[in-house]
Design a protein that fits this description.
alpha/beta; binds ligand LLP; Lyase, Ornithine Decarboxylase, Chain A, domain 1; TIM Barrel; 20 strands; nine-stranded mixed β-sheet; single chain; 29% helix; 13 helices
Length: 425
């Protein structure tokens, strides 16, 4: 069985660092997300070290995990933040991230979001269209400032990953085609409200090899030459996120191997580097702990019905994603030795299946299960669907732990509802 990083067995019981998951579940209830401080910091360090030669700016992608405690701890260890909305800007500023370490990507930045980011003085906008460039220019002029921007290039490179998380192909909504980028670089001085300081690439997520990144860099290299000849001050390359992790049997490249493949190319471009890792830092730093409510057999199939559902972790339902599941306690031998379970949630949707055909020993109600690799795109994609309360979140550091997000209360569910009497009575 695969144990990510700092999750392991302590006297037979699954623990996060020095804290048994059962203890946390008993204290705060289930479902609960549990994160390891050590894993988070280790993963950030690995990237910082692998790319040290380029003095990179590593901006953690807030969309992967937006918990303030996690953001603050990563910022405290030198990370910047990659944001995609005014909401994430607010969070970034709330945790004290220096604006000089904030980069902002999104195909649909609103005028209000652009203004807020300009007022905050963020480091760079990753621009996704010629029109957006004009909008940022206009807003910057009105605020009497100059915005630093990187043009997001769509390099038309296929990264072998799920189609919902492939972003660098030509029919995707992301980025600007190279010919248009070339035109914008040639006319770079025309818009006095923006300074084009580099190019941005993000070709997809959960990519396990360096080759597509290398192809993408090779495709933008010519744009650097061209842009500089036209006088554009191109000092940065933002390579986006996308580094894959192990969920099952993937063999992703190590940060060192990745760096070995791309660093020489970036040195040849003579640029500094920005990375926007999300999953690599937090994916295997978190598990979702859930309790078995019922075990039922139906036509020869066994189901473990658990108290976490697709509203808590949507990845299996949305992407057919595989997440390892393991009992938190000792695995009990099943009578016939081969029992397999589908682990299903309580949500009224056939897609609410966390895992299928897993050998988990003999399960009974009250048993705790851990869903691994749930740190990235778990809690951030959670919802209140089916009137379900969003799970609590806990951070562990050594033998200490604390709640970093309280479980929703029933009041939270109706907090923003209004009952306008004239319309409904
Ligand atoms: N930068 C940009 C511009 C992005 O769009 C993304 C992710 C990242 C960085 C971070 O990528 P990472 O290092 O985490 O791969 N919900 C999906 C993943 C969506 C990724 C969206 N963009 C999932 O659960 O697999």
């Amino acid at each position: 069985m695969y144990y990510p990083h700092d999750f392991h067995r302590l006297e037979g019981e699954l623990a996060c660092e020095g804290v048994p998951l059962r203890r946390i579940a008993q204290a705060v209830g289930t479902p609960v997300y549990v994160y390891s401080h050590k894993t988070l910091v280790d993963h950030l360090r690995k990237l910082q070290q692998a790319f040290a030669a380029l003095r990179p700016l590593i901006c953690f992608s807030v969309k992967a995990n937006g918990s303030l405690a996690i953001l603050r701890l990563l910022v405290g260890h030198g990370a910047g933040l990659d944001i995609v909305s005014g909401g994430e800007l607010y969070k970034a500023l709330r945790v004290g991230c220096p604006p000089s370490r904030i980069v902002y990507a999104s195909v649909g930045k609103t005028a209000a979001e652009i203004r807020a980011a300009l007022r905050a003085g963020i480091f760079c906008f990753n621009v996704e269209s010629a029109e957006e460039l004009e909008a940022i220019h206009g807003a910057a002029r009105r605020l009497r400032t100059v915005a630093r921007v990187a043009l997001r290039v769509n390099p038309n490179v296929r990264a072998h990953t799920h189609r919902y998380i492939t972003t660098g192909v030509k029919d995707s909504k992301f980025g600007i085609d190279p010919a248009t980028v070339q035109g914008l670089l040639r006319r770079h001085g025309r818009l006095s409200g923006v300074r084009i300081i580099g190019l941005h690439l993000h070709i997809g997520s959960q990519i396990s090899e360096a080759a597509p990144f290398v192809r993408a860099i090779d495709r933008v290299a010519v744009l650097y030459g061209d842009g500089r000849r036209a006088g554009a001050p191109l000092e940065w390359l933002n390579l986006g996120g996308g580094l894959g992790i192990i969920y099952k049997d993937e063999r992703p490249q190590t940060p060192q191997a990745f760096a070995a493949a791309v660093v020489p190319r970036i040195q040849r471009l003579r640029t500094r580097l920005i990375l926007e890792p999300g999953r690599f830092i937090v994916g295997n730093a978190g598990v979702l702990v859930t309790e078995v409510l019922y075990v039922k057999s139906s036509r020869g199939k066994q189901f473990a019905v658990v108290d976490a559902g697709m509203n808590d972790l949507i990845r299996p339902a949305l992407y057919s994603a595989y997440h390892e599941v393991m009992p938190v306690g000792r695995v009990r031998e099943a009578a016939n030795g081969r029992a397999t379970y589908d682990v299903v949630g309580p949500v009224c949707e056939s897609a609410d299946v966390l895992a299928t055909g897993r050998r988990l020993g003999r399960l009974g109600s009250g048993e705790l299960l851990a869903v691994l690799g749930a740190g990235a795109y778990g809690s951030t994609m959670a919802s209140n669907y089916n009137g379900r309360l969003r799970a609590a979140e806990v951070l562990v550091r050594g033998r200490h732990w604390a709640v970093i997000r309280a479980r929703d209360t029933l009041k939270d569910l109706v907090r923003h509802d209004r009952l306008p009497a004239r319309l409904i009575e």
